[in-house]
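Protein-export membrane protein SecG
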Amino acid sequence: MLNIILTVLHVIVSILLIMFILLKSGKGGGLSDMFGGGSMSGGGGSTIAEKNLDRITVLTAVVFAVTTMALALRLV
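Tokens:
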């Protein structure tokens, strides 16, 4: 039962992690341009939306790593 819950959580977190990484801006553009904040953020500073997206991405990556390790330990 726990294995099924971990697998479902791992799949959901994987999809979220892919989505958050694709939303991040590369060399230019990304989420800030999508919502019209690209020209307003001058001087190389990050917007609040980009900082929050970074935090959410890191949190999702940590959950992904934890679920990966938990599933690996359950298989042994």
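The two ends are 16 Å apart (CA to CA).
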